[in-house]
Amino acid sequence: MSLIRKINYNKKFNKKCFNFTTPSHSQGDFVCPDAEKILGRKFYECDYSETEGFDNLRAPDGVLKELQQNISKIYTSKSSFILTNGSTSGIVAAMLAVLQQNDEVLIARNCHVSVYNGLVLTGARPVWFLPEKDEKWDIFKSVSPEIIERHLKSNPLIKAVIITSPTYEGIFSSIPQISEITKKYGAILIVDEAHGALCNFSRDYTGYAPAIVSGADISVHSLHKTAGAPNPCALLHIAKSSKVNPQDIQDALNLITTTSPSYPLMAAVEATVEFLFSRNGKAEIRKLYDMVEDFITKVSVLENVEVYSGFCDKSKILLRVAGIPALAVAKILNEDFKIEEEFSNDNSLLFLTGIGTSKKKFEALLQALREMSAMDIDADFLCEKTAIALPSMIYTPREAYFHPSEYIDTEKAAGRICSEVILPYPPGIPLILPGEMINDENIKFIMTEKVKVAGISRSSGQEIPEKPEKFI
Ligand SMILES: Cc1ncc(COP(=O)(O)O)c(C=O)c1O
User: Whose CA is nearest to atom 7 of ligand 1?
Assistant: First the structure.
């Protein structure tokens, strides 16, 4: 029986027991009036805990086991895990399952902050590399398989590789090529596919096959980002061919996640996956990519609007208006057209679409761009670009996390070691991580973004190791 059927069955036949258990609202016997106004009673009616027949996500052997097995079949994985704490928890669990203290792990720097969390918890030593930047669009390009090979060849201690594909901006990397290399050197490949929750169903439109069927060991999907599920529904998958032990993932998830996973969210995961796999779901995905294509065709005739056309998931629309800084375009869109983009950098704007993006939204954006393309724009909108370089790592993220630190004025932070994540959000990609040396360029960025900094004190009696950690 599926979880949704089980919940419906209980409701229909009023199978409510006199549960002296959590949650005390007893499936809606009590609902705070203000909560009811925004959530409704239904949310409470399906909010269970591990009572009779509802299984236990920490060691599933009933309805949740069956649900995860069904999901696994749909995604052709060895095992799939429901995450009610987002891909963030999946990434950390994947790292805990495959890495131990001082293990070396090769990581593309444009990773999500959850990878940093995983580094603190595992104590693994990051070997960072910076994917090439596409300066025109101010985004990171695909991960080059050659860089991965160079690192794995020269450093046999690297146990795992972590990359993001598609990236926040939708850029795909070649997982077949990269996984061939990681396999050759015996490293585990973890792919953050949080933004690729539709990958299993959109191959015909994108040409990208999902990571775990292309050779990766582990991937995560945020169903809430593009697949129409509520925050923060997500999945973790282990590839059929992977040597990763599913029990190691289960143990790691048990270590870091709540003992009270949300049944409404698990039911939403089930509904979302079933929908994506269904005829209606396929039609909805087709509709989405058709709308995107139609939008791109119409936008492309506007003289000064350009849409990114590299190897990317087209449902992430990255565009620029020639001659106008992207941040200025964003301001106009926000203020004059009530359109909010997902993210804008110095040169381009990102519009996230997915299940739930209506034709009306595409039309509103198209209309706004039409009007903007005819506007006279003040040259004052021009803004400077931020150069990116890998900072020097003095301590590992874990060492830095547990190191004494103090708050200091940002202007005085150059030459100090960062002790918190400096994280422009979105996209949640760390600029400086704890343990890394702060330089003048960083200060300039932090001051303009008004980010607060905590630094490890050099005068606190702690010696700075002479030789920095390995980095590229
Ligand atoms: C690339 C990437 N990975 C992982 C995550 C974390 O996903 P979640 O919000 O599902 O925890 C995000 C969220 O913004 C992301 O952008």
Answer: 87
Residue count (the chain): 472
CA-closest residue to ligand 1 atom 9:
86
Q: Mean pLDDT across the stretch 270-290?
A: 97
Quote the crossing angle between the two packed helices 86-98 and 246-256, to the nearest 10°.
Answer: 120
Predicted pLDDT of residue 181: 98
Distance 325 CA to ligand 1 centre (A): 27
Q: Going by DSSP bridges, is the β-strand pair 188-192/133-134 parallel, antiparallel, or unpaired? A: unpaired
Give the count of beta carbons closer than 10 Å to the beta carbon of residue 338.
Answer: 9
The protein residue whose alpha carbon is closest to atom 15 in ligand 1 is 112
For residue 68, the CA-to-ligand 1 centroid distance in Å is 21
Could you tell me which CATH class the domain 280-381 is placed in?
alpha beta
Domain edges within the chain: 3-17+52-277, 280-381, 386-472
Q: The pTM is what?
A: 0.92
DSSP E strands, 330-440? 343-344, 349-352, 406-407, 417-418
- The string of pLDDT tens digits covering residues 2-55 is 999 999 988 877 766 788 889 999 999 999 999 999 999 999 999 999 888 899
Q: Counting runs of H as helices and runs of E as strands, what totals does the chain give?
A: 16, 16
Q: Look up the CATH number of domain 3-17+52-277.
A: 3.40.640.10
Distance CA 349, CA 280 (A): 31
Mean pLDDT of all residues belonging to the chain: 90
Tell me the pLDDT band of 454, cut-offs 50, 70 and 90: very low
